[in-house]
Amino acid sequence: MFRYLHFIGKDVEPDTGRFIDKLSPATGQKIGEVAVGSAADVDRAVRHAWAAFPAWREQHPMARGRILMAIATKLREHAAKLAEMERVETGKPAWQNPHEIEGSAKYFEFYAGLVSINHGEIIDLGPNYHSYTTREPFGVVGVITPWNAPLQQAARAIAPALAVGNVVVVKPSEETPGTSAFLAQIAVEECGLPPGVLNVVQGNGVETGASLVSHPLVRKVAFTGSLRAGREIGKIAAERVIPLTLELGGKSPNIVFETADLDAAVAGSVRAFTLNAGQICVAGTRLLVQQSIYDDFVSRLVAAVKAVTVGPQDDAFVGAITTCAQFEKVKAYFEIGVAEGATIAAGGEALSPEESNGGWYIRPTVFTNVKQDMRIANEEIFGPVLVVIPFSDEAEAIKIANDTDYGLGAGIWTKDLACAHRVAAKLEAGQVFVNEYQAGGIETPMGGYKQSGYGREKGVESLHHYSQLKCTTIRL
């Protein structure tokens, strides 16, 4: 039985303290135990980070960059092991994990190349003054990650934070604890990262996560997860008056106009809500289809959804729901949707025990006859569940798309680029994807409007959110 432990300073912490069970999404059986970090464990990790901060901050940016590049290289060398760890912990299909490990390596590679660009500017106040700005690291950054893409989410925050000279303490989800700790171990033992610069404390959100956000030496926090948890973290951060990056939920609209390439739109719309079993914050789970093509498009969509493979087989496209609680939540929405008057056109059930081997698998589900005021059209389900809503014209599409508390992403399918630009300009979302849902990559900034959060991850923009601005003005 494997035990998931803390990594603090330069060591894997010994088997002490309390543990919680880790269950396999693929079988529902216990596969390990996860340490529950106490306030004392968090304090030890933060103080190790704080002690390492002065020397790391003073490192030449290129020296930091070489270490980040070494981490990228080592992640690729250990890719098979990391992919297997995530497959076991998350229940993802075999094809998916290698792509996510490669994406994690790319974050370190990308920010390794940007270590020298986080500079300020000269401000012209006339000949009697010299005024300039500088960007400086915060110090200890707390990073709290979710279970849907554990290593990628960790790398997305750690790499830019380290690039600008911060030190980091990570609290991964207790559901997917392994790869973040292994990353820290690789970085210190094989890549030359000074001990204390990157630490990992295992545990739950209520105790371990709250202790991290509350610690007086933590100067900045980045959180990705649910709206409920984000609100709780926001309260603590507000009391302490520290900056916070929040990437929370989504109920993203995916708009198909009659001018779309319908074959591409069908395939893209299916992938938009089934990838990672729908466990993606920016998943396109509200499909808005123009009335003139509605019947034909939905017919083709439903046929494509029914052809999607799901289960424990290595070649399945859709894997397990990662947690038992989430599995039960997704199933509950089938009854909610039917009770509200919607129609299940595909899916609407979990795999049988015989098909699933006891794991938590949901068939991709499509609801039609959906009205915008239904719960299934407004609440984030976080599973492979799609609601389809018709619209008449651009104005109505925009109105329906923006009629949500969330604003993380949106999709547009059309060959009319003037329409694409008009609609994109009016959508209340941090990312808009045209003719390819989730187009972009590590270079493109990501973040939300409204209750989807604030701050930005990814791209050059992320560096500004992991540094603070100082202005110095001298009278000559």
Keywords:
476 residues, 2 domains, globular, 6-stranded mixed sheet, 7-stranded mixed sheet, 21% strand, 21 strands, alpha/beta, Aldehyde Dehydrogenase, Chain A, domain 1, single chain, Aldehyde Dehydrogenase, Chain A, domain 2, 16 helices
Topology, pairings included?
Elements: E1 2-4, E2 7-8, E3 11-12, E4 18-23, E5 30-36, H1 39-58, H2 61-77, H3 79-90, H4 96-112, E6 122-123, E7 129-137, E8 140-144, H5 150-163, E9 167-171, H6 178-190, E10 198-200, H7 205-214, E11 218-224, H8 227-240, E12 244-247, E13 253-256, H9 262-274, E14 286-290, H10 294-306, H11 324-340, E15 343-346, H12 353-356, E16 365-368, H13 375-378, E17 385-391, H14 394-402, E18 409-413, H15 417-426, E19 431-434, E20 453-454, H16 461-465, E21 467-475
Parallel strand pairs: 1-5, 8-9, 8-11, 9-10, 11-12, 13-14, 13-18, 14-17, 16-17, 18-19
Antiparallel strand pairs: 2-3, 4-5, 6-7, 7-21, 12-20, 15-16
Describe the structure.
There is one protein chain. The protein is α/β, with parallel strands linked by helices and about 475 residues long. It folds into two domains: about 1-250 and about 455-475, Aldehyde Dehydrogenase, Chain A, domain 1; about 255-440, Aldehyde Dehydrogenase, Chain A, domain 2 (3-Layer(aba) Sandwich), CATH 3.40.309. About 40% of the residues lie in helices and about 20% in strands. The protein has 16 helices and 21 strands. The chain has helices spanning about 40-60, 60-75, 80-90, 95-110, 150-165, 180-190, 205-215, 225-240, 260-275, 295-305, 325-340, 355, 375-380, 395-400, 415-425, 460-465; strands spanning about 1-5, 5-10, 10, 20-25, 30-35, 120-125, 130-135, 140-145, 165-170, 200, 220-225, 245, 255, 285-290, 345, 365-370, 385-390, 410-415, 430-435, 455, 465-475. Strand 9, helix 6 and strand 10 (about 200) form a beta-alpha-beta unit. The longest helix is centred in the N-terminal third of the chain and has 20 residues, at about 40-60.
